[in-house]
Design a protein that fits this description.
Largest sheet of chain A: 7 strands, mixed
Largest interface: A-B, 37 and 36 residues
Helix content of chain B: over 70%
Structural class of chain B: mainly alpha
Oligomer: heterodimer
Distance between the termini of chain A: 74 Å
Strand content of chain A: 15-25%
Order of helices and strands of chain A: HEHEEHEHEEHEHEHEHEHEHHHEEEE
Number of strands of chain A: 15
Order of helices and strands of chain B: HHHHEEEHHHEHHH
Structural class of chain A: alpha/beta
Strand order of the largest sheet of chain A: 8-7-9-10-11-14-15
Radius of gyration of chain B: 19 Å
Number of helices of chain A: 12
Radius of gyration of chain A: 22 Å
Strand order of the largest sheet of chain B: 1-4
Strand content of chain B: under 5%
Shape of chain A: elongated
Shape of chain B: globular
Largest sheet of chain B: 2 strands, antiparallel
């Protein structure tokens, strides 16, 4: 009697397992829930949860004439490169996800992209602007502009807006994103104003809190503008110390400023500064406004650029899933089909703007950048749009 | 050039003040118990968080005593933070170190326990408060003064002043008071002291109170200077302050003080004239060199009396 029950249970499980697996489409999220930039992970997860609810409430997505629900697996990469690598491997080999969204910042995205490409699983990096993420990696896609575009945009803006002839840069040398962007800015600025016009090119190392020596050099260099391509947890420290060392010139930032709780940490000190980013929440229209309203209602805060880009990135990957001929259940085959379907998308209308993907080369979208001014209320107000 | 140098000397004094304050705590506990309290850096972190909660509470963020002026909040917060941090330090001593001491185990096990306690404090904070950074409120408005092209803020002067006062106070307690004498006696011979009728446990608790209070003091001023708090902020600075204490001659209060400033100076000067990646490499090579010439540290005396 007892044995027959066990056999029956076993049969039910065996019969149920493939049915369950075939009914859902699993995507992985490789995001920083802890570590240096936990707010980035939170934004990504919020946007993903909102998307999942929207899709599953509508009955799921149709692939090859069959309905599937979506399932998201979140893996914490602790804002560390090595953890991002193991998170990507775990999602691909153990959790059997079809594709991965994330990591967000380039420091994690560059190594994770290598793992995804080697294991032949499609990966979408929504927020990583370092060119190396997608370079020579057909399985890796990107949802934002590149530093090679952002750097010159910032250099041009500093020249036109502040009439800057000399610039200073302070960046984290141990992290891929600030390092790459600082170099791109320097190249672009020196192209406009001649070699040596970047009068101070100062570095620090991740987790440093005292920048007084670097900022002393910057204050003494006679720079007209300071470019700080750092994250929201470092910007307040840099800005405050710059002011206390008597540096009163404009400070400008990059898209990493817009994420997380910059204003909560920085307060009045950051008001009046500019940064280059992907979208401006204040004054948005159409689909973007719908997204912002819904997100604000759910989570009680304005979505940052990470949330918007995660939404776009995940949607683009799901568009790829919809364009697949069918889900066969053979992971290697399905992943390749998804990669081909995503590569087939030439134009995607996202809430952060239209993205067109070039026919050949790495999967980097061509999209516009936005310059945002932090206004007196601490809101990120749209200031200028710069298109390639 | 001269202005840059002067400015960097001021920067180094501020940065070194924090190393010194933390190193003093290491030095006290080591001096009395010969125990390297590796949790000290994390007690410093707890101090900064306690300061954060005390200040937001006093500033009336939760509707209590609103409208208190910033300078008053600071004068109240400093002793309160020191007391509460001391409570944490003493709890650690009661829960983790005293049972081990009673059982008379090897010092090595106590050191490992200290390391573990540090991890518990870090991850306890992470679990309770989450990974998000906390922004320390501005207590007093920052005034920037310019002298001959050198820039100083009121906060910078205050930090340096506090470090010097702290050192003088500690020096006074240890060398001029009765309990200071008892501390030195315990450091000299821990087993003979109870025979003289000195309550050894009380003296040890007092040492922890003093050391942790100094970590709390460092915590509140660190949070005012660098107002972004995170759970791992104490780990690295604790390690470095410990090394500074060793170079100064662990066990010697003047040594810990000097060692902290020395490390601060070397770090700031290296960053000012070299790429920042060279900082720790050059700083610790210099410290290594000092130790290989004087293995007992700058102020250390070869194994006779501590403190």
């Amino acid at each position: 009697m007892k044995r027959s029950w066990l056999i029956a249970l076993f049969l039910v499980l065996v019969a149920a397992a493939p049915v369950r697996a075939a009914d859902t489409i699993k995507l992985g999220f490789n995001i920083p829930m802890t570590g240096d930039i936990p707010d980035v992970g939170e934004s990504s997860k919020n946007a993903a949860e909102m998307l999942k609810k929207k899709i599953n409430d509508a009955g799921g997505i149709t692939v090859g004439g069959k309905k599937y629900l979506v399932e998201f697996v979140y893996e914490d990469n602790e804002s560390k490169a090595e953890s991002a690598l193991s998170a990507a491997r775990k999602l691909i080999t153990q959790d059997d996800v079809l594709g991965i969204v994330g990591p967000q910042s380039s420091k994690q995205a560059v190594p994770a992209a290598e793992a995804s490409n080697d294991l032949k699983a499609p990966m979408m990096a929504p927020w990583s602007t370092n060119p190396n993420t997608t370079k020579d990696r057909p399985y890796v896609f990107r949802g934002c502009f590149l530093d090679t575009f952002q750097g010159p945009t910032a250099a041009k803006f500093a020249t036109e807006e502040f009439k800057a002839k000399k610039a200073a840069v302070l960046y984290d040398i141990a992290s891929d994103y600030p390092k790459g962007l600082a170099e791109d800015f320097k190249t672009a600025f020196e192209k406009i104003h001649g070699p040596g016009s970047v009068v101070a090119f100062e570095t620090f190392t991740t987790k440093d809190v005292d920048f007084s020596a670097q900022l002393t050099n910057i204050a003494k260099s006679g720079a007209d503008v300071l470019f700080v391509p750092q994250y929201y947890n470092e910007v307040p420290l840099i800005v405050k110390q710059a002011k206390s060392l008597g540096f009163e010139k404009p400070i400008m930032g990059s898209d990493s400023w817009g994420s997380g709780d910059l204003m909560g940490l920085c307060g009045d000190d950051c008001k009046g500064y500019y940064f280059v980013t992907h979208y401006a929440a204040a004054g948005a229209k159409g689909k973007t406004k719908e997204f912002i309203d819904e997100y604000t209602k759910l989570y009680n805060k304005t979505p940052d650029d990470v949330a918007a880009l995660t939404w776009d990135g995940a949607n683009l990957m799901l568009d790829g899933v919809k364009a697949m001929p069918a889900i066969t259940g053979d992971m290697a085959k399905d992943r390749e089909a998804l990669m081909k379907a995503m590569a087939g998308i030439k134009k995607f209308e996202g809430i952060t703007g239209d993205m067109s993907y070039p026919a050949t080369g790495p999967h980097d979208p061509i999209k516009c950048a936005v310059v945002v001014k932090i206004d007196d209320n601490g809101k990120f107000a749209f200031y200028k749009s710069v298109c390639p | 050039m001269l202005q840059s140098l002067l400015q960097n000397i001021l920067n180094a004094l501020q940065w070194g003040s924090f190393y010194s304050l933390i190193a003093l705590g290491y030095c006290l506990v080591y001096g009395v118990l010969l125990l390297i309290n590796f949790a000290h850096g994390d007690i410093f972190m707890v101090g900064a968080y306690i300061a954060f909660f005390v200040c937001t509470f006093l500033l009336g963020k939760f509707g209590l005593i609103p409208g208190l002026p910033g300078w008053l909040v600071m004068t109240l917060a400093v002793p309160l933070t020191m007391i509460l941090t001391a409570v944490v330090g003493v709890t650690l001593e009661r829960v983790a170190y005293r049972p081990l001491r009673r059982k008379g185990v090897n010092r090595l096990y106590v050191v490992i326990t200290a390391l573990m306690c540090g991890l518990i404090l870090e991850n306890g904070n992470l679990a309770l408060l989450g990974a998000s950074r906390k922004s320390f409120p501005t207590l007093i408005p920052t005034h920037v003064y310019h002298f001959f092209g050198v820039t100083v803020t009121n906060l910078k002067l205050m930090v340096i002043g506090v470090a010097i006062l702290g050192f003088l106070l500690l020096q006074f307690i240890v060398s001029r008071t009765k309990i200071g004498m008892a501390m030195r006696a315990i450091s000299y011979d821990r087993f003979a002291v109870p025979l003289m009728g000195i309550p050894a446990d009380t003296v040890i608790v007092f040492t922890f109170v003093l050391g942790s209070a100094f970590a709390g003091l460092a915590g509140i001023f660190f949070a005012m200077t660098y107002p972004v708090l995170d759970p791992y902020m104490g780990a690295l600075i604790g390690w470095k302050a410990f090394i500074a204490a060793v170079v100064g001659g662990i066990g010697s209060i003047a040594g810990a003080f000097a060692g902290g400033f020395l490390l601060g100076f070397v770090e700031i000067m290296v960053v000012a004239f070299f790429p920042s990646t060279f900082r720790d490499l050059i700083a610790f090579s210099i410290l290594l060199l000092i130790l290989s010439i004087r293995p007992t540290g700058l102020f250390g005396v070869a194994k006779s009396t501590k403190i």
